[in-house]
Design a protein that fits this description.
It contains 4 helices and 4 strands. With about 90 residues, it is of the alpha+beta class. Strands 1-2-3-4 form a 4-stranded antiparallel β-sheet.
Amino acid sequence: MIRKAGNAGYDELTCVWESAVLSTHDFPGQKDYEFYKSNLCMYFGYVDLYVVKRHGRIAGFTGIAAGSIEMLFVMTTSDEAVSAKSLSCMP
C-alpha cells in the first residue's frame, strides 16, 4: 500500500536512496555522491513523498511535484524490493 511519508522517515528514505543509486547510478566521483546525499533532506522538502513498506520498513519511495514524478527509488535487496511500477501508480 502506498502512503504519504511525512518527515519521520528521512533516515530510512536515505537508506533506500543509497541502495538504489549505488546499484543504478554512475557518479563522476565520491564528491558528487556525497553532495547529493548531503542535500537529500532539502530535496525531500520540495516534493510530496509517498512510500511503500515491506516487512515494516520502507522499501521504495517516490516524490511528486506539480503532478509529476520527480524522484523514484526502490531498495535493491531482494527481501525489501518493490517494483518501481507500483510506485508510479499514485493515488
